[in-house]
Amino acid sequence: MVLLAVVTVLGLTVWFSATAVSPALQAEWGISPVTAVWITASVQLGFVTGGVTSALLTLGDRFRPQLVMAIAAAGASLSTALLALTANGFWAAVVLRFLTGVFLAGLYPVGMKVMASWAAPRQRGKAFGLLLGALTVGSGMPHLISGLADLPWRQVMLVAAAVTAVAGIIAVLWVRPGPHAHQQPSRPRIRHAWAGFRTRTPLLANLGYFGHMWELYAFWTWLPTFLLLSRQTQFGGQGVEWIGLVVFLAIGVAGLAGCLLGGWAADRFGRRLAAVSALLVSGACCLLSPVMFRAAWPVMIVFLVLWGASVIADSGVFSTSLSESVDPRYVGTALTAQTALGFLLTVVTIQLVPVLASALGWQFAFLLLLPGPVAGAAAMYLQHRPSHQPDTTAGTAEPTAPFARLSAGEQVDGQHPGQSPSKGARTGSPGSSRGAKPEHGIVST
Description:
This protein is an all-alpha fold.
């Protein structure tokens, strides 16, 4: 699992590579900040395109995941290097960033499937927390590169491309599915791309995820601008040289800590409590952002560490919940559909934040993000135990997800994982659960 996390850190370094050098791109190409944001949004749109294509063709479940991840990393690395070496204008950058997003859709969602195969259900919270922590560090890496060394923007992107290429090499040589992987190849079935929207538990997990995504990437994208305008308008430009390192601290370091803490809390106290708590904290940070806009660096850094940790702490909870509640043969497809639609939503908020900022000022721009954690917390709160299922778990676990016990490809009452159990044999049915102990290792969603 640690090796998979390393691949994720290295592979996702290219994601925000253009965002980290956006001021240099604006100056060299003569584009406005609102126009420049499409260089970031094009990665999101590419990720959605690649994710939807992968989900509909079930690529993550049909082919060896290490091969898919290696090809994806190589493609993302190449498109980023081409931008650094050949792009001389806005539209070339948009096309190449779009291709980067397409390739990244084969890296991160497939990595989630592999991570699920290495963790038993009761350990998946910590496992996904580790993977999401790796995502945050990888996303913040370009800010660290630009903050530590005063490099031209093309060199920053070349360094990021080289790092991602290393991820592909590691993936193809050493990453392998774990003991809980479904071993039989899966035939493409488009209906499994929408499995997370047909029943209550995965639907609420997806809705919670969408609320989370409404906030997350807009916060990551516009945090450098928020800090720059804060330092310029409130402190006469003092301390602007620290913005890159502060952003990496908030996104990478605090985000990693938040993911690990969120994963541990999900396994220890339940998926719902962990997700709702993180969403409420990040929502409170959205609400306080206008006040903190005027804060000095020490107070601002403490605030951003709290926000950076809470805004990502719940992300692994949604992935875990979905992976436990869909057909185990198509976990990769369901996770890819979830992430693709979530990233499509991020395009909206990334575009809306500067619109609100132009109307009210950057001090109030992040108030736009508040509805996301509020709606996400409401969706996760609704994941309650059905009234017919007895409470035998001291109040911390919730109902067994329909497919959670099949995560290792087991059969239930002679049925194949893809088949419906016979009447009376369903998990949680009155005829099978009365007086029985809950399935070992199954935690709440």
